[in-house]
Design brief:
Elements: H1 12-18, H2 22-35, H3 50-59, E1 70-74, H4 82-88, E2 93-98, H5 101-113, E3 119-122, H6 128-134, E4 137-143, H7 148-155, E5 159-168, H8 173-186, E6 193-197, E7 206-212, H9 231-235
Parallel strand pairs: 1-2, 1-4, 2-3, 4-5
Antiparallel strand pairs: 5-7, 6-7
Length: 236
């Protein structure tokens, strides 16, 4: 039977980012290392990179989020980026949205174990019931969920006017904007912009794409197809 990989030691930057929540961050890493592979939450090669690639990379997204706002983590999975964001920014009202039952169970266990105020919701962002339940958010966050055009299509109905999508994208950011930026604008989003988080703190800063909801939702599809005209539209 293979030995369970041991949790890596935290880098010095972790204390700067997590502050008083550092013990809970260490506990989260230990739990991921202990059962994350077994539950299919992380790959075996990810254990050594849990701090730099996963927790810290996720937590620094908080630099782009105002104080006290409502945040939805779409496709939270193992809890990334939502759990590290909760730890680094306890002022935020965070909802962890995840469709898979086994991952929902994990998220509920983590929220309980770390005494977090986050809410776990099972469902998909595109489901009508989820749109109704969670609409009006200030910020939607996501990590490794979907291409930018599709991700915006899922995020926009959950955001209030002026709300923002903050998507962790890494090296693909510029290419995704070049490919999908026009479709995002036609679907009610601002021109996507690339930002760096954790500059001067992380060895490799996190790369994110930000999009603000500036247009009405639902007037055009993500791929630029206008909605079917109704009789009322045709008579105006």
């Amino acid at each position: 039977m293979a030995e369970t990989p041991s949790a890596p030691a935290p880098p010095e930057s972790a204390s700067t980012i997590f502050g008083d929540a550092m013990p809970a961050a260490v506990q989260f890493v230990e739990l991921l290392a202990a059962v994350g592979i077994e539950r299919g939450l992380i790959g075996p090669r990810e254990v050594d990179r849990l701090w730099d690639r996963h927790l810290l990379n996720s937590a620094v997204v908080g630099e782009r989020i105002p104080s006290g706002v409502r945040v939805i983590d779409i496709g939270s999975g193992a809890g990334l980026p939502g759990i590290p964001l909760c730890l680094a920014r306890p002022d935020l009202d965070v909802t962890l949205l995840e469709p898979m039952a086994r991952r929902v169970a994990w998220l509920e266990e983590i929220v309980d174990a770390l005494s977090l105020s986050a809410i776990v919701v099972r469902g998909r962002a595109e489901e009508p019931a989820i749109k109704q339940q969670l609409s009006g958010a200030d910020v939607v966050i996501a990590r490794a969920v979907a291409p930018l055009d599709r991700l915006w299509g899922w995020s926009a109905p959950l955001l209030r006017q002026g709300g923002r999508l903050v998507a962790l994208k890494g090296e693909s950011a510029e290419a995704e904007i070049a490919r999908d930026g026009g479709a995002v604008k036609r679907a009610g989003g601002s021109l996507p912009t690339v930002e760096r988080c954790g500059v001067g703190v992380l060895e490799t800063p996190a790369t994110i794409i930000e999009i603000e909801r500036v247009g009405a939702r639902g007037r055009e599809g993500v791929h630029g197809r206008p909605p079917r005209r109704t009789r009322k539209d045709q008579t105006q």
